[in-house]
Amino acid sequence: MTNPAIQNDFSYYRRTLSRMRINNVPAEGENEVNNELANRMSLFYAEATPMLKTLSDATTKFVSENKNLPIENTTDCLSTMASVCRVMLETPEYRSRFTNEETVSFCLRVMVGVIILYDHVHPVGAFAKTSKIDMKGCIKVLKDQPPNSVEGLLNALRYTTKHLNDETTSKQIRSMLQ
C-alpha cells in the first residue's frame, strides 16, 4: 500500500523488454523475466497489499481444506496473537522493555496483519461484538502512535478487511477508523 509505483515500474520494464524484442536487441538473459512469470507478478502486485492478500488466501484455503480442525483453532490463535501485541504495546511496563523502535513497528504490523487474517477467516469477522479481538483497544493503540508511522496500517484496516462495513460493526469502531 505504501509503494503503489511498483506496478508502474514493472509495467515499464515489460514495455521496454517488448520493444527490445521487436527491435531484435538481445536482452541480458539472466535478467529477463519470462512472460508467464511476468503475468503472475503483475497480478500479484495489482493487489493493494499483495503479501497480505496471499497470506489471507492461504489461511482461508487452510481452514476450508481442513474441515476436521475446528475453525476456532485458527481464529483463537489469530486473536491471541493480536491480544498479545496489543497488551505489549499498551502496557508501559512491557513497552519499556523494547530497546529498538523497530520492535514496536514490528508488533504493530503483526497486530494489524492478524486482525485482517482473522477478519477474512472468521464467519462474522473481527469487527463484530462477538469477536475475540478487542478492536477498540487495537485501534486506540494504533492511534496513540505518531500518525505518519501508522497511517498505512490504519489504511490496511480500512481497505483490506472484509467485515468493516457490515451492519454488525459498531458505529464507534467505524468512526474510529474514519
TrEMBL record:
InterPro entries: CYRI, CYRIA/CYRIB_Rac1-bd. One of its GO terms (molecular function) is small GTPase binding. Residues 1-174 form the CYRIA/CYRIB Rac1 binding domain. Its main location: membrane. It is found in: Membrane. Keywords: Lipoprotein, Membrane. The keyword RNA-binding does not apply. GO terms for cellular component: membrane. GO terms for biological process: regulation of actin filament polymerization. It is a lipid-anchor. Belongs to the CYRI family. Interacts with RAC1 (GTP-bound form preferentially). This is CYRIA/CYRIB Rac1 binding domain-containing protein. It comes from Phyllostomus discolor (pale spear-nosed bat). The lineage of its organism: Eukaryota, Metazoa, Chordata, Craniata, Vertebrata.
